[in-house]
Structure formats: C-alpha cells, structure tokens
Amino acid sequence: PNVNIPSGFSPNGDGKNDVWRINILEEFPRAKVQVYNRWGELLYEQANGYTKPWDGTYNGEALPIGTYYYVVDFNSDRFKSMTGPITIVR
Q1: pLDDT per residue over 22-54, tens digit each?
Q2: Which residues on adjacent β-strands are paired with residue 60?
Q3: Strands of 32-36's sheet, edge to edge?
Q4: Going by C-beta distance under 8 Å and a sequence separation of 6 or more, which residues neighbour residue 25?
Q5: SS3 23
Q6: Strand pairing of 82-88 and 8-9?
C-alpha cells in the first residue's frame, strides 16, 4: 500500500501531534504494530488493528526523547511488513 508512516511525533500534551497516527491502517483490521527500543525491548504492541494510536508511553510512563523502531505487519498476503525508525520529540 501507499503508506506514509510518520517518522516522529511530539507527545507533549499540546493537542498537536500527540500520538503516532498511521492513517491507512484502518483499512487493515488485522494489522499489528510493534515499537522497540534500541536494545530490542518491546515497548508497545497492538494487534488486530491499530485502533488506539501509540502515545509514546511504556507501562504508563512517558518515554524519553529518542529514536525507537517500529514493525508494521499488515497481516495481508498482498503486502509485506514495514520497519523503520520513529522519533519522539517533546
């Protein structure tokens, strides 16, 4: 799919760009999104659709400014998974 996955967001509570939105995923109700830190620790996972965008937290705590890594699995025979960096800025 023609997916534009944002490379960053700013979860600072100002109401602008506070969550990581991936607009096309509503068309993939079985999609799975995962976010990892640089050591490979899973920080966020949402399977069966990306209905609640990631807000930059882990276990209820705000993550620090930095670069994290995502995997988006469309769970579709027609499309391959996508990976890349995601940066949190505040």
Answers
A1: 988 888 999 999 999 999 999 999 998 898 899
A2: none
A3: 8-9, 82-88, 66-73, 32-36, 42-46
A4: 31, 33, 49, 50, 72
A5: helix
A6: parallel
